[in-house]
Design a protein that fits this description.
By secondary structure, this protein is of the alpha+beta class. It is built from twelve helices and 23 strands. It folds into two domains: about 450 residues, Purple Acid Phosphatase, chain A, domain 2 (4-Layer Sandwich); about 110 residues, Immunoglobulin-like, CATH 2.60.40. It has a seven-stranded mixed sheet with strand order 10-9-8-20-21-22-23. A seven-stranded mixed sheet has the order 13-14-15-16-18-17-19. A four-stranded antiparallel sheet has the order 4-3-6-7.
């Protein structure tokens, strides 16, 4: 397969969103809910913005006195992502209290280099807590001297221990470039610029590693770059660069700080410590591939850990006054292989999802925490998933296969299937460690909020310890990656889907909400005594400017559980 790359190919981007007016992108005439067929609209195209700030700006990892700000410089047409080309470019960065930069509070200098794919990370210190700032970059030398980046808006965390009445976070995951347009990001950006949301928690699958046409749902509406499955450092850099040409995604990054973690597709499907389902021997050494993917991730994402050759790690925590501590877990790098692929599961199976070092760090973090809530950034579903009649009713069995394909697709006749976790890639496959964590949360009297992505569908669960509700789990739908009905080529809605959802509720006593046919993101509003979870849904991911609407809202209250 070809591994060539040209600027012309790179320019074939469909990134259309609110604020990207006049791009000439064709739209679909039907609603996704009524027309389950592949898109027939022409592949969308647009020209990139002028050099050198092609990929916008971003911020992330807010602390009470610091935040990361990010940009990428494209010095010339040959310096596309992954090219390892282009002259170093010096810039001045500025942070101000106003978008006109009349009150600059911090400034400094940085230089882009091809060794870092011309990405720039600045850890700005000495900021005031709980304060909104605006930032920009200005080229200081070379052919683009004087050029100013797009405007960025960010916000620092409240001070540790300070009384905080509310935090409102967007929760998102699973954005597949070919499957649909990023309308969810456009809506998220609008809320960020309006000051309605404090930050975005992104829980993995920011990119997908597949080749063109391989995992496009009802698409493709636009094509991956490079065309082949990504394996090398150049490949991963190029794929990130492709994604970051989308105006909706760039605007969402510019509108507020993001706290991010990877799941599997930032590397390859169903990754674990020493391998992945979607890594084959002819693709070279897995750990070499993983290290390349991780390096590109650190380069392109606004994270404080930016040196993959050092002792850096992606798991970390953030405190927001006395209200909530957000603990980000890495559920891929240290996990054991799934039980099915590693042999038959035995009673007392003690496979680890976190690895011993991270597990001990997590418990120490929880023990030290003094906030009213503990939010856990969690890339795969924590709560049990039992399928019950969904599996045994022939009419609904395809939904069971879609939710548990890692076992049922190739082992549909396993006699003891009801006794096994049906998706061993989730916490169900690591139940020993899950029970250890729940017992610790209960022992410490913590109120956990598990924030989850990965499964491309909407869920809400109560989290129980010894039969008592101690917290909840909120699972967001995918931004665009195929959900259950997309994967099956079925209409959204319909009586069979409703039957499957009813079966899911019957089989899972802790389940409060389930929707298998939506796309979008979630909002989580945390106050001292309750958590309000909202699911926002994109009308049609095949339309570039699709509306995004609030759909379901649930409240979990301390000492009462879900109250509505």
């Amino acid at each position: 397969m070809t591994r060539s790359f040209t600027r012309r190919g790179f320019l074939r981007s469909s990134a259309v969103a609110a604020g990207a007016v006049g791009t000439g992108v064709a739209t679909q005439a039907w609603a996704q809910s009524s027309q389950p067929v592949a898109s027939t609209a022409p592949l969308a195209e647009m020209e990139l913005p002028p050099l050198p700030f092609v990929h916008g700006v971003a911020s992330g990892d807010p602390l009470p006195d610091a935040v990361i700000i990010w940009t990428r410089i494209t010095p010339d047409d040959a310096s596309f992502p992954g090219s390892n080309a282009g002259a170093p470019t010096p810039v001045r960065w500025e942070i101000a209290l106003d978008p006109e930069f009349a009150h600059v509070v911090q400034s400094g200098h940085a230089t882009s280099t091809p060794e870092r794919d011309h990405t720039i990370h600045v850890d700005v210190r000495g900021l005031a807590a709980a304060t909104t700032y605006f930032y920009r970059f200005v080229v200081t030398q070379g052919p683009h001297a004087g050029t100013v980046s797009p405007l960025g808006r960010t916000k620092t965390a409240p001070g540790v221990g300070v009384n905080v009445g509310k935090q409102k976070w967007a929760v998102a995951s699973c954005a597949n470039w070919e499957s649909g347009f990023f309308s969810a990001y456009a809506d998220l950006a609008e809320r960020g610029w309006a000051g309605d949301v404090d930050l975005t928690v992104f829980l993995g699958d920011y990119i997908y590693e597949y080749a063109r046409y391989e995992y496009a749902g009802f698409g493709p509406v636009r094509l991956h770059e490079p065309a082949h499955e990504i394996v090398t450092l150049q490949d991963y850099r190029t794929r990130y660069g492709r994604y970051r040409t989308d105006p909706a995604l760039k605007n969402a990054h510019a509108a507020m700080p993001w706290i991010v973690v990877w799941d599997d597709h930032e590397i390859a499907n169903n990754t674990w410590r020493d391998g992945a389902d979607n890594h084959q021997p002819h693709e070279g050494d897995y750990l070499t591939r993983r290290d390349a993917a991780v390096r590109a991730y650190y380069e392109w994402m606004p994270v404080r850990v930016a040196d993959p050759s050092g002792e850096g790690r992606i798991y970390r925590s953030f405190t927001f006054g006395d209200l909530v501590e957000l603990t980000i877990m890495d559920l891929r790098t240290f996990r054991d292989v799934e039980f099915w692929r590693g042999g038959s599961r035995q009673p007392g199976d003690a496979r680890t999802m976190l690895g011993s070092e991270q597990y001990n760090w997590l418990i120490d973090t929880l023990e030290r925490s003094r906030t009213r809530w503990n939010a856990l950034g969690n890339s795969v579903m924590f709560s049990p998933m039992r399928l019950g009649a969904v599996l045994h009713n022939p009419a609904t069995r395809p939904f069971a296969k879609a939710l548990s394909s890692n076992i049922l697709s190739s082992h549909a006749n396993v006699p003891t299937i009801d006794e096994m976790p049906l998706n061993g890639d989730q916490w169900d496959g690591y139940d020993f460690e899950r029970r250890r964590l729940i017992n610790t949360l209960g022992r410490l009297g913590k109120s956990p909020i598990f924030l989850t992505g990965d499964i491309h569908t909407e869920w809400a669960h109560s989290v129980l310890h010894d039969g008592t509700e101690i917290g909840c789990e909120v699972v967001c739908a995918s931004v665009t990656a195929p959900n259950v009905t997309d994967s099956l080529g079925l209409r959204a809605g319909g009586p069979v889907l409703a039957t499957a959802v009813n079966y899911m509720h019957a089989a899972n006593p802790t389940l409060r909400h389930c929707a298998l046919d939506t796309h979008g993101y979630s909002l989580v509003t945390i106050t001292p005594d309750e958590v309000v979870a909202e699911w926002l849904r994109v009308d049609n991911i095949l339309e570039p400017l699709s509306p995004v609407r609030p759909a379901v809202a649930l409240t979990w209250r301390k000492d009462a559980g879900f109250v509505r």
